[in-house]
Design a protein that fits this description.
single chain, 208 residues, mainly alpha, 6 helices
């Protein structure tokens, strides 16, 4: 068997070494890519974890006693004070108008506008509020919470006043019907007595 040329052997060894080097280089590049992907995933997980922790802290703050007291008292005070001021202004306007539209409907005007405006503002605030479930992780600010609470209570106070006004009007209308029926019966009774007296008076005149 013929011995291979040393140059040919060296050439084959070089090619084999180059092939192994290429494979090793490919493995290194693949490992570097995997490491880069791993670092990206790790960074993304760390970012999500930090965001989640911040969200939990904010949720905890939103449900703290101090925060709830501030929102409830702030919104309630704004709703109550604004309702009283508006109703006081309407009563003053009713006294000024005497027998005008405002004076005749002051009971309804102290409830209906509050209910409509308060409900409209409450719906608008809730519709424009960002939902934390959409991955934004954004919770409503304290100002928006106070406004939401104030508009909700403002609408409820208006509805309460409106319901009371309608109930009173219904009761007054029913009482007027009763009074009218009583007056009609009394009128018919008086008319009957008058006719009887008139008939007796006529009969006495004829006897004379």
């Amino acid at each position: 068997m013929a011995t291979k040329d040393p140059l040919e052997k060296a050439k084959q060894a070089l090619e084999k070494a180059q092939e192994q080097n290429a494979q090793l280089q490919q493995q290194i590049e693949t490992g570097a890519a995997l490491e880069a992907d791993y670092e990206k995933v790790l960074a993304s997980q760390q970012k999500a974890s930090n965001k989640y922790e911040k969200l939990l802290m904010r949720v905890g703050d939103k449900h703290s006693k101090a925060h709830r007291v501030a929102v409830d008292l702030g919104g309630g005070s704004i709703a109550q004070v604004s309702t009283e001021l508006i109703n006081w202004s309407l009563r003053a306007l009713g006294r000024w108008s005497k027998d005008g539209f405002v004076a005749q409907n002051i009971d309804l005007l102290q409830g209906a506008p509050h209910f409509v405006i308060g409900l409209g503002l409450y719906i608008a605030e809730m519709a424009t509020r960002k939902d934390p479930a959409d991955n934004s992780g954004e919770l409503p600010s304290t100002t928006r919470e106070v406004i939401s609470e104030a508009t909700k209570l403002f609408a409820q106070l208006g509805f309460s006043n409106l319901s009371r006004a309608i109930r009173v009007r219904y009761a007054d209308g029913k009482q007027e019907q009763i009074d009218h029926a009583a007056l009609s019966a009394e009128y018919r009774e008086l008319q009957k007595k008058y006719l009887e007296l008139q008939a007796k008076s006529g009969a006495g005149g004829k006897e004379r």
